[in-house]
Amino acid sequence: MPSQRDDCLFCSIVREGNYVRQEKGFVAIKDINPQAPVHLLVIPERHVDTFRDIGEFPAREMKRMLEFVAETAREAGLTDYKVQVNVGPSAGQTVFHLHWHILGTIPHSDAIDHVQTAVVEL
Ligand code: 5GP
Ligand code: ZN
Q1: At 115, phi and psi to the nearest 5?
Q2: pLDDT at residue 114 tops 60
Q3: Is the pLDDT reported for residue 111 higher than 70?
Q4: Which of 64, 89, 112, 118 has its CA 20 to 30 A from that of 45?
């Protein structure tokens, strides 16, 4: 496993967390304090303190991490969403292990729209 810190919350979540999605090198979890109807965090196994250190990721791993963010959003049912990284305390960063916020709202499904249409027609 790439670099880990014993005293890091997200390193321990990567080791033993309750994931919504996982693949080698990355996990996705639900944010404990959601700021949107869907609020997920993508966390790489590799510990880097902040986005400022993004250069520590090998190019291939970096590409895979961004693909993992997009796939996680899609599998969560999101088409439109925000991807956010807070960099540094005054920008809102509270956990110093790089992570990507996915924030969105699941649109009404076709099934629900169909039922609503049927009710109107009756
Ligand atoms: P930051 O503020 O560093 O950009 O984001 C850290 C996020 O981690 C916050 O949105 C916060 O709610 C979330 N968080 C903090 N501790 C935990 C935890 O123990 N479990 C989970 N699932 N999320 C956490
Ligand atoms: Zn860490």
Answers
A1: -60, -45
A2: no
A3: no
A4: 89
Termini Cα distance of the chain: 59
**CA 109 – CA 28 distance, rounded (Å):** 23
Catalytic residue among 39, 97, 99, 101: 99
Residue pair 103/73 in contact (Cβ under 8 Å)? The answer is no
Mean pLDDT on 112-120: 45
Q: Report the pocket of ligand 1 as residue ranges, CB < 6 Å.
A: 9, 29-33, 41, 86, 92-95
Q: Which atom of ligand 1 is nearest to the CA of 94?
A: 3
* Active-site residue, 101 included: no
Quote the pTM value. Answer: 0.89
Q: How far is the CA of 111 from the centre of ligand 2 (A)?
A: 41
